[in-house]
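URGENT: need a sanity check before tomorrow's submission.

F., can you look over the MaoC-like domain-containing protein record below? I want to be sure the sequence and structure line up before it goes out.
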Amino acid sequence: MARINPALREPTYDNVQVGELIGPLTVAADEHYLNRARFALEDHSDEYNKGPESLVPAPMVGRDLVALFCEVYDPSRTVGLHQKEEIWFHGEIPLGTTMEYTGRYTEKYERRGKGYTVFDCEAREAGTGRLLVRQISTEIMRIPEGIKLGTGSAPVTEGAQRIEPRWPTDREPVAKLSSDTEVGTPIEPLSHTARQDQMSVFSGESQQWYNIHTDIEVALKAGFRDTLAQGMMETCWAAQMLRAAIGPSWHHSGWIKMVYLKPVFRGDTITCRAVVSGKETVDGKTKLTFELWAENQDGQMTAAGWASGRLG
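Structure tokens as predicted:
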């Protein structure tokens, strides 16, 4: 059952204050944070299992930045839907790092009766100011009457239609990319099931946030047939896939932008796919660009986007 926090603002389009600084919020990337991230993302890559030498999954920091507005706006009254995320990975996050999150709404606008907000935020290492992750989130915070939630019937965000899920059949997907990789090469897909226990950890249930991702009653009241995973979970899964293919350099050169097209409900199995769409040399390193998408067990595309990263 949702608990209203009267000390926080109601998260509505009209209440959003453009330009207001939110934060800094200090977060410890300690062992508890690492364990929570590995479980929520189901990512047990070797670099996250090296004891004191472990890294912390940077995509989880991206998840935190999405939720930073909840320091000012009540998370248990949130009714908006994220439309797209854009994330830049600037540096590795060693276990034990103290991070500072800051962000601000930079824009809000109306289109086709819907109210959009744009939130620009970043995570830096406390003390040094080293930039770790930057993220820009676009969310619909005003939904007009007549749009039925959970059906994918709303108009597609501009730009998303440029991604066509064409999976090459003339070559095998590769697990590791190299400077010899050709444009048109698919990379090894990654599948995850949206499980409620992981969705709940990812979406703040431990902080007593009651929302469409953690609470079935809230989801039903909002017009959905079940709880649904945050779109950001798909972005995290796609980033995991790209990190495996590109290697450690993803942590300081990775960029990903995804547009969310259809809800991902509890129990859905999502497969992330990517195909190399471009190749160039930047500062002596091979930079690859990708078209990527996510699809559910019925073959429906739930998200689409673009990414890039340097090798080596």
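My own read: The radius of gyration is 19 Å. The mean pLDDT is 90. If you see anything odd, call me.
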